[in-house]
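Following up on my earlier message about inosinic acid. Here are the inputs again, as you asked, copied directly from the submission form:
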Amino acid sequence: MKKEVEYNGLKFEPYISKERIDARVQELAGQISKDCCGKDPLFLCVLTGAFPFASDLFRAVDIDAEISFIRLQSYQGMSTTGVVKQVLGLGDEIKGRNIVIVEDIIDTGCTMHNLISLIKEKGANDVKIATLLFKPSALCRPVKPDYVGFEIPTKFIIGYGLDIDGKARNLQDIYVLKDEK
Ligand code: IMP
Ligand code: MG
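Thanks, got it. Here's what our run produced:
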């Protein structure tokens, strides 16, 4: 793990190591396997940020399951725009299915709130939320994730799928924006 990384002139320091992420992903996969056994869940990976998490989580689940992808956009730079665009949409594959949404992070909850309505409109039987990270104090929508990797304070983080203007997604560990001193 690097001591410090820099993007857009901003400095980030180590926050959650690859080892901790891996261990937590295994635990979440174990819980999901238990809860969803026999329900043929459809994992719905929210692109782009959730793809490393979804890839690791999906392969760690040891029950019959399927995966699909949706692409939404609400963030520009370091703050949410509040408007959620559906870039790569949902088809009819949702109808009657038990959905496990796989998200990288829940911040204001705006994206998740919109996505849940969309999925319910399409006639899903059940919707569960798995998010690697959750910022409870930033939440402004009534969203309750079922599986949370790590609860974190309202800080800006990057790595393991999380980006700053499209960069840093390929970092294996998670880094946090350094406090300006
Ligand atoms: P929300 O709609 O405010 O909950 O934001 C959700 C989306 O914003 C996530 O799927 C991320 O793509 C992005 N996001 C929120 N917080 C961070 C962060 O700390 N770093 C990078 N992206 C973030
Ligand atoms: Mg995202």
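One observation from looking it over: The pocket of inosinic acid (ligand 1) is lined by residues 49, 74-75, 80, 103-112, 156-158, 162-163 (CB under 6 Å). Hope that helps, and feel free to reply on this thread.
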